[in-house]
Amino acid sequence: MGGSRCKFWLPKKKRFCAIPPLPNSEFCGNHSKRSDDAWIQCSIDPSHSVLQSNLQAHLTRCPLLKHKNSLHLQPFYQKGINGGGGGPHHHHDVITTSHSKRMAVHSLTPPQFIKLIEKIKSVHATLPHIQDSFNLPEACKVWINRGIDRKIPFQEKHVIQQASILGNLEKLGAFNSSGIGENPNPSSPAVVEFGAGRGYLTQMLADCYGVSKADRSLRQIENLILERLRIDIKDLNLNAIASLQGVPFLAIGKHLCGPATDMTLRCCVGEHDVSRKSNLRGVSIATCCHHLCQWKHYINRGFFLSLGMTEDEFHAITRFSSWAVDADHGSDDIDECESDTTKMRRKDDDEDDDMLSAKERGVIGFMCKDIIDMGRLMWMKENGLESELVKYVPSNISPENHLLIGK
């Protein structure tokens, strides 16, 4: 490690801070020994802290504030367009916090709790079986065998997940109808990756399927046009993006946490937007973090009501869904979002554990995930998509293994 970088170790990123150190110090301003003045979270962006005495001055130049002000001027920004809410099955706009969900569950009497568990079992018994579809396509073998050298971090578990996400989309026929494959044509669709991070999923698609289209490596591919939008999916009007006007597109996403899946489906399909639906060539979304789902944002509230379930029961089901990733799945390597879920469970759940064994909780947790995602699948079918819900990797690779695919 050269002397031009801060010596503060970032455990989540598994590297040292990249910011240059202060003069006569091994650390940058964020990680140097704190002065006697109090450090407090920035009220605009809680991910960083500032000296209390500097707060007012900082608020006028916080980078996130500048980004928000700029974003609100963009034609594709439309506040809450994909957030759901409203409609005959919506009662209020309040977000139900994890604490509220917990308290609601703990307020149930033992007979009420057991009745709800039995109701979940009964509803789940009526649902179609979710098929296993662990699909590693031949096109992705070059990545799986580490044949692509772009100095991209290789983590076998994540590469296998990415390959199966694309493999299932190919199996459904979305690539054939889009001109993607061995001989891509000039009219090959755009690829919109939601929750992209560094864009590794799109990177694999571009490398393995020859799409005429992380992040840093993608920019090095000849004839590829890359556009990154830093925007909440809830506020993204896909039709207002100039580069997508009238352009067919594929929508992909690996682990769209909680309501992000619902918002992405609205963004891509649009219940009342014929042009957006006609341009969609395929969608492949790996769902996760069902405990974060909200009735306000959920895309198929009518599905739950048709099952005789209320809004309160929906939120209880989202809470119980965390039991699935709290069980032992034979893997010590669980995604970060899954680990966070487990920490949440261990931290604040004891009272509703004693009536069920750990194995029973795990089974109920998976049932709850199935019910939530089955409602999403039904919505996709109702909106004209040929769709499937599959388990795209074995649970020992990731217990968060549901994939929604459609074309």
From TrEMBL:
Region annotated Disordered, chain positions: 334-354
Reaction(s) the record says it catalyses: cytidine(4) in tRNA(Gly)(GCC) + S-adenosyl-L-methionine = 2'-O-methylcytidine(4) in tRNA(Gly)(GCC) + S-adenosyl-L-homocysteine + H(+); cytidine(4) in tRNA(Pro) + S-adenosyl-L-methionine = 2'-O-methylcytidine(4) in tRNA(Pro) + S-adenosyl-L-homocysteine + H(+); adenosine(4) in tRNA(His) + S-adenosyl-L-methionine = 2'-O-methyladenosine(4) in tRNA(His) + S-adenosyl-L-homocysteine + H(+)
Biological processes annotated in GO: tRNA methylation
Entry GO MF terms: tRNA 2'-O-methyltransferase activity; zinc ion binding
Annotated keywords: Metal-binding, Methyltransferase, S-adenosyl-L-methionine, Transferase, tRNA processing, Zinc, Zinc-finger
Listed EC numbers: 2.1.1.225
UniProt organism field: Centaurea solstitialis
Residue stretches making up the CHHC U11-48K-type domain: 39-66
Family: Belongs to the methyltransferase TRM13 family.
Protein name listed in UniProt: tRNA:m(4)X modification enzyme TRM13
Job description of the protein: tRNA methylase which 2'-O-methylates cytidine(4) in tRNA(Pro) and tRNA(Gly)(GCC), and adenosine(4) in tRNA(His).
